[in-house]
Write a structure and sequence with these properties.
The protein is of the alpha+beta class and 152 residues long. It has one domain: Immunoglobulin-like (Sandwich), CATH 2.60.40. The chain has one helix and nine strands; from the N terminus they run αβββββββββ. The strands form two sheets. Strands 1, 2, 3, 5, 6 and 8 form a six-stranded antiparallel sheet that branches. The longest helix has 23 residues.
């Protein structure tokens, strides 16, 4: 009986440790850039680098609709007009995956997300972006990051 109790406790500890490790791990590293294109036009760039064996869904992931695509929400700012939607720049993988209906599109390694804006003066623009990263075994819960672009 004592051995069985030890096995149950040890198993619970191992599962708790593995669960907390997976929840704290973020294989995504983000950097942000403001690139001036003209007197009033800028690109706000989200540079993403992923650890090996991890991927992020495309803005248009395809599949069965269960894939969580990255999203970008910019705060309202009277000095800033968004020009079109956020675009992605990288080398996509388009494939089928076990357990997902249809082809899916994702990025591994690096990808840039770019929002073009027109600006009427120096300002700051806050953005909340949500993303989910996955590997061959699991997807981590979606995460929100907030960044403020200083546009000059």
């Amino acid at each position: 009986m004592k051995i069985l109790k030890c096995i149950v406790v040890l198993t619970a500890l191992l599962l708790t440790g593995a669960s907390s490790f997976a929840q704290n791990e973020d294989p995504a590293s983000w950097k942000y850039e403001v690139k001036k294109k003209s007197a009033t036009q800028y690109e706000l760039i989200f540079h993403l680098t992923l650890k090996a064996k991890w991927h992020i869904w495309s803005l248009h992931p395809g599949g069965d609709g269960m894939e969580i695509a990255p999203s970008f929400v910019f705060d309202k700012n009277a000095k800033v007009t968004l020009s079109g939607p956020v675009t992605e720049k990288g080398t996509p993988t388009v494939t089928t995956m076990e357990g997902i209906d249809g082809k899916v599109t994702y990025f591994s390694g690096t990808v840039d997300y770019i929002q073009t804006v027109t600006v009427t003066g120096n300002t700051k623009l806050k953005c909340t972006h949500t993303y989910q990263v996955c590997n061959d075994m699991m997807c981590l819960p979606p995460k929100d990051k907030i960044f403020v672009f200083d546009i000059k």
